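Researcher: Can you fold this with fe (ii) ion in place?
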Amino acid sequence: MATEIFSPSKNDQAQVDFLPLQGTDYVEFYVGNAKQAAHYYKTAFGFQSLAYAGPETGVRDKASYVIRQNKLTFVLKQPIRGNNEMADHIARHGDGVKVLALKVEDATSAWEETTKRGGKSYLKPTTLKDDDGEVVMSGIHTYGDTVHLFIERKKYSGPFMPGYRKWESVYNPTSTGLLYVDHCVGNVGWNQMNPWVKFYEEVMGFKNILSFDDKDISTEYSALMSKVMSNGNGYVKFPINEPAEGKKKSQVEEYLEFYNGEGVQHVALATNNIIETVTELKNRGVEFVKIPESYYATVLDRVGHIDEDLKPLSELRILIDRDDEGYLLQIFSKPVEDRPTLFFEIIQRKGAKSFGKGNFKALFEAIEREQAERGNL
Ligand code: FE2
C-alpha cells in the first residue's frame, strides 16, 4: 500500500509562494442553536469556552460562541432573527461548516493575490479594532456556499477578535487531547473535482499531492474519486471528493442530497494519543463508524509492526494504514447532525503523510451499512 507523495516544498523552492499560510486559524459553523452546539463540543469533544459575541456585546442579529482546545478553534454561529443569509444557509444546508479560516501574515495581500487569479471575493480586506489591537480579515468563495477567510492577527492580543468578549464559563470539561486541524475534506458534484483542483492550484497556489480514482475507492456498490490539495508548506490540506458511478448511491451523493449542494464533508482532528482520545470521546457519547472485528485478523500483515498494542485499537475500532514514510491511526465519527452530512476524523500520524487509502474499502463498506440503515443506499 505504498503511496508516492509529492512534496511541493522540496520541488518548488525556487517559486515564491504568493499565498503563504501559517495554518488553520479557525473553523466556523453555521448552526441552528449555537448555545447548545457550543455545549456539545465542550462536553463531547473537550473544548473550552474562549469568547462570545451577541446581543449583550452589541451584536443585534446573531450569536457567536468561540471554543478552543490546544490549537483548534471552532466558532459556532447562529442568526437570532429570520430572513437573512445565515438563516437561509441553515435552512438549506442544516448545520455545517461555513468558513475555513486560514492564518496569514498579510490578509490584504492574500485577497489581492487570490482575487487577481480569479478568486471570487467574499470579503474585501477589512480592519477590525478594539482595545486589544487590530485584526485584518478578507475572504474568497470556494465550493458550494463555503468560504475561506484570511486572518491577519499579528497586532492583536485579545482572546479572539475585536467584537468578541472573553467567555468565562463555570463549566470547563477536560481536554480529550485534540490538537489541531490535520485536513478538511470537501464534497463536490459530478465532474466538479477537477475544476476545484484547478481553483486551488491557480487561485491559491496549492499542489495536487495525491489522487485516488474509483479503482482505489470503490466497494461492491458505490465509488468516489478524490484529489488531495496542499499548500506550499503542507500546513493546509484540502482533499476534494467527487462521486463516481457505482451500482448504488455513494456516500458523496448522499451528502450532496442532504446538504443540498457542495460543502465540507469532514474535518480531521489530530491527536498524539489516539487510544486515550478515542476512549475519552466514546465515554462522552461521540459515536463512530464501526468496522467489523475481522479487520484486525489481517491488518498487521498489511501494515507491519506498530508501536501500539493491537487489542485497544481493535476494541475501539481504530483503523491503521502505512505509507513509505510511516504509519497512521484513524477513526471516523458518525455524522454529528441528523442530516447525514458533516462528520469528524480523529487521526494520529506516526510518520505517514497520506490519508488511509488501505482503509478505504473496510471503511466505506461500514459507511454503506449505515447509509442502508438510513434508507439512502
Ligand atoms: Fe480524512
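Model: Folded with fe (ii) ion in place. The chain has two domains: 3-166, 178-374.
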